[in-house]
UniProtKB/TrEMBL annotation:
The keyword ATP-binding does not apply. One of its GO terms (cellular component) is membrane. This is Phosphate transporter. It is a multi-pass membrane protein. It is found in: Membrane. It comes from marine metagenome.
């Protein structure tokens, strides 16, 4: 059953991509699960509601609630510390640690120590550049 579901979803995604159609892997997997269940003839509506549909409905609601709570806490802390729009949070890698990690095979800069400071915007750089997983990202 898992091989049939994975194969059906993969073929759906490949075909839609090849035809230039918009595709959602989540919808492809759900379609493959429903198709596999229908072809097997063993759909249990009670289990389908509690083990499949309920998490699909509850997960976005929980995620939205958590995001709203974190936003409220962040906004409170921002106002409590009396930060203003011209303040800047600058995160810079520790160059010694980053260089040491770069010399070790199989190690990225993920373990490099970061230094975070809140400073005035006029004293900070306009752009942002930092190593992420061994790649240089950002702009100047």
């Amino acid at each position: 059953f898992p091989v049939a579901v994975a194969g059906g979803a993969a073929l759906t995604v490949l075909l839609a991509t090849r035809l230039g159609l918009p595709i959602s892997t989540t919808h492809a997997l759900i379609g493959a699960l429903v198709g596999g269940g229908l072809s097997a003839g063993s759909i249990d509506a009670a289990r389908l509601g509690t083990a499949f549909a309920l998490p699909l409905v509850v997960s976005p609601l929980l995620a939205t609630s958590l995001a709203a709570a974190l936003y409220t806490i962040g906004r409170f802390l921002w106002r409590h510390w009396q930060l203003e729009a011209d303040d800047c949070l600058c995160i810079e890698p520790n160059p010694e640690v980053a260089a040491e990690l770069a010399l070790q095979p199989g190690r990225g800069s993920a373990g490099a120590a970061r230094v975070a400071t809140i400073t005035e915007q006029n004293t900070s750089q306009r752009g942002f550049r930092a190593p992420v997983a061994g790649l240089r990202v950002g702009s100047e």
